[in-house]
User: Which sequence fits this backbone?
């Protein structure tokens, strides 16, 4: 299933002169600046890598927060709703940056993270309950990214987001 947000399917600007073939990942054509596997314990490393590379690429500070937030949300979704781990790739393009977050599909039956809505502090009496409504994370990603897509199938989910250097989109 393809999300209703447009996905160009092209290699990053200036990094290839023809689009990848059907089902061909961008990674099959262009070497990413970051190619990092993650799980629930390493989301901080994903955030740090994204922030460092977005800053080095020249993304304005306010937009770096948007990029980090969007990638973190996609990675957290991969951990929570996917197989508990995933892979993040980031490309610096002529016009901005592109991030791809992929997972290998749903968690095996009976594994931790069965989707019951309980977070890590669910049993804590000190933690105030956090209202959870599914879909807000992807809504937020779509609001802050200049372009976003989500492809889901039996072998997993691949989310791709683009942030342009010249973008002045409001995040509200």
Assistant:
């Amino acid at each position: 299933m393809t999300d209703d947000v447009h996905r160009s399917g092209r290699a990053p600007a200036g990094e290839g002169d023809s689009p990848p073939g059907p089902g061909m990942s961008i990674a099959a054509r262009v070497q990413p600046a970051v190619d990092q596997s993650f799980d629930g314990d390493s989301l901080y490393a994903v955030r740090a890598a994204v922030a460092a590379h977005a800053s080095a690429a020249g993304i304005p500070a306010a937009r770096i927060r948007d990029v980090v937030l969007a990638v973190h949300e996609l990675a957290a979704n991969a951990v929570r709703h996917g197989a508990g781990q995933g892979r993040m790739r980031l490309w610096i393009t002529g016009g901005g940056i592109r991030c791809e977050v992929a997972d290998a599909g749903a968690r095996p039956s009976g594994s931790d993270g069965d989707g019951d809505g309980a977070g890590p502090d669910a049993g804590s009496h000190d933690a105030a309950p956090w209202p959870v409504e599914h879909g807000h994370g992807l809504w937020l990603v779509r609001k802050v990214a200049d372009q976003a897509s989500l492809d889901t199938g039996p072998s997993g989910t691949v989310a791709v987001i683009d942030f342009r250097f010249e973008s002045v989109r409001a995040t509200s």
Observations:
- Residues 33 and 53 are 8 Å apart (CA to CA).
- The helical segments are 43-57, 61-81, 136-144.
- The first helix runs from residue 43 to 57.
